[in-house]
Amino acid sequence: MLLIWIYLFSIFHLCTSVDSDVQCEQKNVTVQVPNLLLPSITTTESLATWFCWKEGTQLNTNTIVHLTIHGYTYDHTYWAFPYQSPEYSYVDYVIKNSNGSIVVLNIDRIGIGLSSKPDAIDVTVDSNANVISQLTTYIHNGAYKDIQFTNIILVGHSLGTLITWTIASTPSYNQYIRGIIATGWLHVPNPVGTAAVIASVYPAQLDPVTSQQSVPLLYVTTNPANNTRQNLFYNISNADPNVIQTDEQTKHTGTIGEVLTFGLAILPTVTLSIPSNIPVLAVMGQYDIVFCAPLVLSCDTSSNIALRESSSYLSAIDTFVLPNSGHDINLHLNSQDWYEKALNWTLQHF
Predict the structure, then answer these.
(1) Model confidence at 86, in pLDDT bands (50, 70, 90)?
(2) pTM summary value
(3) What is the pLDDT of residues 248-304, one digit of tens each?
(4) How far apart are CA 96 and CA 93, in angstroms?
(5) How far apart are CA 124 and CA 257, in angstroms?
């Protein structure tokens, strides 16, 4: 019961502790989730969203929307972290520092947090992409503030980036996408780091945090033994121990369906199908052990990332490395350096 209250407090904290200039409204939207084996069969589910904007701003169809997509075992609070907000809040930073020209639509992906939790096998990379493509249609058709927004940028982290690639590369999904910011994921992973992530997961029902979240079977999370999240997702020399502790206390789940569909979604053929008129910013933490290692898999500089990724896209991409950061670039002491890059890149292109 205590852990339920911790999670509810984090949600309340998000709604009340954002900067006074930034306003957020929570809204559930209805989506259809396809069956893995029979995609023509769908179930009706609910997707939790938070629409955030700068108070007093006159919004219009040209206002830029950053649609933020969190990663595996996280929820929407990755983008608006409940500890020392707004220092770690991407939502607050880009809204305030764009002088209101950017709004953020933050979500709990399907299967996570306040969103519906379908059978694990039906929560895949593609079903996530399908659901978010439905959401982009809602955004474009005026579901938020009765405004038909035309500049939608997908901002993904980790699995959220893999989902972003799938949306942007699929003609039936990408109709309203104008750009993508892809963080925490590259085409070639570090096999040692990847093996450590796979070895770290166990059934969500066995975990002291996620067992309180009433998730179906075959939902998984990270095992807290041996400080798993700290070792996998952080460069601890550049992170606040209280952030790491809060991360563990507010963690969420992933599904077996997502794990089983990583393989096809990571192929370069996916990103090579992203239209050349959709600009891409790729961002990595310098010491992200899931994707980076010395020499061949180096993430030390933006040039390293460009060299590793450029052949997987039709046109040139922009790149940025957050120095001294691990995988969770939003949760390191210098996170605002990459927020600034995302903001400037957006204003340059749109």
Answers:
(1) confident
(2) 0.94
(3) 999 999 999 999 999 999 999 999 999 999 999 999 999 999 999 999 999 999 999
(4) 5
(5) 5
| Containing structural domain, residue 155 | 22-192+253-349
Query: Hey, CA dihedral for 281, 286, 288, 293, is it positive or negative?
Result: positive
Q: Which two tokens stand for residue 311?
A: 């052949």
Q: Report if residue 73 sits inside a domain.
A: yes
Residue 27 lies in a domain: yes
Q: Does residue 207 belong to any structural domain of this protein? A: no
* Domain membership flag for residue 206: no
Radius of gyration of the chain (CA): 18
In the predicted model, is pLDDT for residue 4 greater than 80?
Answer: no
pLDDT for the residue 19: 56
Number of structural domains (the chain) is: 1
Question: In whole angstroms, what is the distance from residue 115 CA to residue 47 CA?
Answer: 5
d(CA 141, CA 162): 25
Element (H, E) at 32: strand 22-34
Q: What gap in Å lies between CA 229 and CA 196, rounded to an integer? A: 11
1-9, long-range: CB < 8 A, 24+ apart: 1/212, 3/208, 3/209, 3/212, 3/249, 4/212, 6/249, 6/250, 7/212, 7/213, 7/250, 9/82
Report d(CA 115, CA 257) in Å as an integer.
17
Neighbouring C-beta atoms of residue 230, cutoff 10 Å: 19
Angle, helix 159-169 to helix 125-140, in steps of 10 degrees? 60
Task: With H, G, I as helix, E, B as strand and everything else as coil, classify residue 64.
Answer: strand
Question: What CATH number is associated with residue 130?
Answer: 3.40.50.1820
Locate tokens 């059978």: which residue? Answer: 119
Nearest Cα residue to 256 out of 294, 289, 229, 218: 218
